[in-house]
Specification:
Distance between the termini: 79 Å
Structural class: alpha+beta
Number of domains: 2
Oligomer: single chain
CATH class of the largest domain: Alpha Beta
CATH superfamily of the largest domain: K Homology domain, type 1
Order of helices and strands: HEHHEEHHHEHHEEHH
Amino acid sequence: MEDEKRRDEADKNEVVVDEAEAVENEEWAVSEHYVRIPQDRIGVLIGKGGSTKAELESRTSSRIEVDSRDGSVVIRTRDPLMALRVVDVVRAIARGFSPEKAFALLDDDARILDIISLSYLSENALRRVKGRIIGRGGRTRQHIEELTGTKISVYGKTTSIIGYPEQVRVARAAVEMLVNGTPHGAVYSYLERKRRELREGYF
């Protein structure tokens, strides 16, 4: 009889806990988004001892769950607009940006993430194009970043850009010129011209 009473009490407590967890999840699920990231970027998103994920959660008042088996990420927050910023930060990290560079998306709502897909290229063409965008010792990418005020990541079959809309537009155009085979000198001339046009508003 005593054992039955203990089991009944335990069952009641378990129901209470389950209900509390359900209510808590419901409160956090005002806005819920799903993202999948590459396996080799899971550790970067989580960070040493969970530090990167914890900082992102703290800065955005969100909850982030990462499944290390398949790279699926669940983002929950009470603020739908903030949820979109968190999604962008996670996508930026997934596309090769360091957490420090990805977190720039949180510092100013005007900054955007633009991802250029190169998946239509053959493996040989992809290697050649990525080499053109990065340049020897990373100089071409660095030159584009310096002349546009953006940050650029070349990862997998994508080239991604973080910056203000007009800056990103110019950087994207430069990348697309390189993809299409435009000589580097012509691309640099284009960037110099655009920098003069943008300087008053962005530099």
